[in-house]
Amino acid sequence: MKFLRALFAFSIIPLMAACSSNSQLANGWNGCVVGGALAGATAGVVLDGHLPGGIVGAAVGGFAGAMLCGGPDSDGDGVADSQDRCPGTPKGVAVDAKGCPIDSDGDGVSDYLDKCPKTAKGVPVDASGCPADSDGDGVPDSTDRCPGTPAGVKVDGVGCPLDDDGDGVANYLDKCPGTAVDTKVDGKGCPVNLLVLHGIKFAFDSAQVSASSSAILNRAVKAMKDNPNVNVRIVGHTDSVGSEEYNDGLSQRRAAAVRSYLVSNGVSLGRMDIAGEGESQPIASNETAQGRKLNRRVEFQVLKN
After folding, report:
1. Which of 158, 168, 213, 221 has the fewest CB atoms within 10 Å, i.e. the most exposed one?
2. β-strand pairing of 297-302 with 232-237
3. 234: CB partners within 8 A, 6+ apart
4. What would the pLDDT profile of 172-224 be if each residue is shown by its tens digit?
5. Nearest residue to 181 (alpha-carbon basis) of 164, 163, 166
6. CATH number, domain at 201?
């Protein structure tokens, strides 16, 4: 009995040193058993001086090794199979005390698979551990104020489609980009017109309204008086005859002339802004006389209240 106690003492010391020197127990449970047996055999020969002592020592050492290692460790992660909640961990992956791969940022994706370590707590992530971006617009779901943006649509910093003219209709849907500020628009981003006047005649190369246009302009007077709570922007348009620069100025002067007519007929000046778009917004072809006639027009665009 004294021999066995001494044998156990002499074999367990080197075995413990061997096991503690390898935190991952790279050789697994079998390695511990073999290591214990060798340690025990050596101690047995030293203590007994004979081969039988070595055999007994090998048995005792192997048993001690098995007890110390706690059982087989199939994936070699340093956690015995009996305690391992994540068996089959790939070789070399750092694990916690339960044998599961470490997930430092707690996003549900192990560090060895996580392409975006240190993700903020509570942020939904994809399979690679990066913040989820369901609509693929480059803005993570956690900060995206406009989820579900169609693919390819340019967005701002909060994931909403760009709206360069600020009319409330995103660029990719806006059929009338560049709408003036404060102009009321429809669902396509185009100005809501109170009315469009065609056929107003001016003296040649002039902004002076001809007497024959009174009937047309009186429609505008009536529309403004029938809608006392509506403010408008009077916008002049021309055809493409002449230079672009000249037409811009001419359309502005003609819009001013129409406003003057309405003021002289009792419409408050404060309800009307003016603008000139020249030849930039044709509604018909400038290649025909009829098309040019349609393009020479004045629009009353409703302003936002």
Report:
1. 158
2. antiparallel
3. 255, 258, 259, 272, 273, 274, 275, 298, 299, 300, 301
4. 999 999 998 899 999 999 999 999 998 888 766 667 788 888 999 999 999 99
5. 166
6. 3.30.1330.60
- The pair of structure tokens assigned to 43 is 């101690």
Instruction: Tell me which residue of 201, 234, 232 sits closest to 216, measured CA to CA.
Output: 201
State the distance between the two ends of the chain, measured CA to CA, in whole angstroms. Answer: 103
Residue 218 token pair? 């009186």
Strand 193-198 relative to strand 232-237: parallel, antiparallel, unpaired?
Answer: unpaired
pLDDT in tens, 141-151: 999 999 999 99
Helix axes 51-69, 2-20, angle to 10 degrees: 50
Q: At what angle do helices 28-48 and 51-69 cross, to 10 degrees?
A: 150
Helix (H) or strand (E) holding 91: none
> What is the reported pTM?
0.58
- CA dist., res. 56 & res. 70, Å (int): 22
110 and 29 within one domain = no
Q: Work out how many domains the chain is built from and give that number.
A: 3
Three-state DSSP state, 101: strand
Among residues 248, 250, 237, which one has the least CA distance to residue 291?
A: 237
